[in-house]
Amino acid sequence: MPEMTEQQPLEAPPRAPAPTRADPYRERGDPSLTTLIRRLVDDARALVQQEVALAKLEVRQSVASIARGSLSIAIGLGILVVGLLVLVAFAVIGLGVLLEGAYWLSSLIVGVALVIIGAVALIIGGKKIRSTELAPDQTAESLRESQAWARMEIRDFKEDLAT
Q: What's the CA gap between 133 and 129, in Å, rounded?
């Protein structure tokens, strides 16, 4: 991806008394008004393209962060299920023996404990996903700066036309 650079505002031509000819820019060797407008349009087009590229990059980074959080949740749940399947049988049987054959009670106790552990894991994964900000903050800031720059350029352009 090309490197993003800060746009430099166009410099207004030096102010001088207006000659009596039709196009004062051409007499001084300055670019014509058409050329200046074309440059302004080209710069604005390039600026918009850079803003779009920055927004795409930020969205990609946010999606990648969510994907990593989701992968962590999936792996955690998978490992939890496999480990718990092995331990559930052991815990139910062991607790049933301690409860003098009350296997129904041992199953209930083990089941509630597993639900609590699973809920905690889901809450932690959900917090990881929610902590990822989806709004492209850098792009929004850059757009505000570009808007201020464009307003300044338009104001300067109007002032140049008035003189």
A: 9
**Residue 110, Cβ density class (10 Å: 0-12 exposed, 13-18 middle, ≥19 buried):** buried
Q: One-letter amino acid identity for 11?
A: E
- Maximum distance among all alpha carbons in the chain? 112
> Contact at 8 Å (CB) between 20 and 163?
no
Measure the CA–CA gap between 38 and 49, rounded to whole angstroms: 17
Contacts for 78-86 with beta carbons within 8 Å, 24 or more apart?
80/117, 80/118, 80/121, 84/114, 84/117
90-107 per-position pLDDT tens digit? 989 999 999 998 999 999
Q: What is the pTM of this model?
A: 0.38
The CA R_g of the chain, rounded to the nearest whole Å, is: 33
Nearest to 8 by CA among 57, 36, 43: 43
CA distances 144 to 41, 52, 135, Å, are 18, 14, 15
H helix or E strand, kind and range, residue 90: helix 33-98
